[in-house]
Fold this protein.
Amino acid sequence: MPERPYTYYDFTLSICSTCLRRVDAKIVFEDGRVMMLKHCPQHGFEKVLIATDIAYYKNIRNYNKPSETPLKFNTETRYGCPYDCGLCQDHEQHSCLTLVEITDRCNLTCPTCYAMSSPHYGRHRTLAEVESMLDRIVENEGEPDVVQISGGEPTLHPDFFEILDKAKARPIKHLMVNTNGIRIARDFAFAQRLASYMPDFELYLQFDSFRPDALEKLRGKDLTDVRKKALEHLNALNLSTTLVVTVQMGVNDDELGAIIDFALQQRCVRGVTFQPVQVAGRNENFDPALHRITLTDVRRKILEQTSVFQPNDLIPVPCNPDALAMGYALKLSDQVFPLTRYIDPALLLDNSRNTIVYEQDEVLKERMLDIFSTGISVDRVEENMKQLLCCLPQVQAPGLTYDNLFRIIIMRFIDAYDFDVRAIKKSCVHIVHKDGRIIPFETMNLFYRDDKEYYLKTLQQERLSPVL
Ligand code: SF4
Ligand code: SF4
Ligand SMILES: [Zn+2]
């Protein structure tokens, strides 16, 4: 019989990358890669690269755990996912991290900016608006794990410190500020004031490359000196910092190992978050559906480019395993001990088995599960990590603190090409909309920003009375 050139693996729903209407999609394995095949009645057939590591992709399914929901949902499930955000009743994960965009303005105009920020775009949110957004997060989450003050560039907001005070006055476990570091580099007194918000406070600092030409491409500007000066200030203050690397194929994907090695040398740096991004077709030969950098590419490149981590150190995060991979290491003076490898991932979630090679195995298992279950919430990690270390007799490390933890995260955001309704329901990085809805980061950028909502209404209407 005639044979197909692929192996059929799964069925899901996606959206057409042109009209954003919901379409059926198949997941298939072809030439060692995971592909999505979908068809829009109006715009035809699409084939999209999803992952370049079939074994890892299949393994994602082993990291599912019961969903944790928010205390309340904000919208009805009416039009079908992803047109009901949110969060609607149908969502399968609460907000592990919620972004509050306090301004549209930025002192850069990065070509990669999803929010289209610039010095003149949009406006700052008023203090009252920001407070009501913070209140909405607290209503939904009770004690939110991580709230990230973002923008635009949040440090430009005239009431920036007042906003931090307002956030700190609420029961938020861990507060982060997402920044390009320009203000921190230029003004040490500003950095000092930021440091006064510790503990449970951390910076998410843009850090993409050591090469001026790559920075020009990603940020529109050579920011080498800004990065250097910002880190100098943050190291002096030991202000907890995560370096955030936007990874673009052919631009900086050969620097991932060097960035990790550099990060390990910085006193203030607690980890690196890698975010693969796609560029829309600027080049006619560039097909954004097939020439994509996937989570598995980033993971493979990290493993190839650094000797610190092995494959069993970078594993899916159960709260949102399609989008997040994570690895922990201990930083002890000039030595690094990867931790994730000490756990057999097959045992991590398998309740039916109880033989594990370590002493106090049940405790160890529980602790690791706890750590990974909290996803990107870092506040509970220190406590868990201390307890975990009791279970690893070979690591002698008294007096450990959060400073000793080093964390690698790969955070991949679904776009219109690789959109998968199965996976989006587990999205756990959310944005609080100015009208109070809590919206997954990915669907926000596709449907719920001001310039997109008009079109969304059309799609919603069609769902109620489909055009034949
Ligand atoms: S992504 Fe989540 S909140 Fe949005 S429509 Fe789907 S289930 Fe609802
Ligand atoms: S620094 Fe951030 S907010 Fe500003 S333009 Fe660049 S990506 Fe956008
Ligand atoms: Zn279409």
Q: What stands out?
A: The chain has 15 helices and 16 strands. The chain has a mean pLDDT of 86.
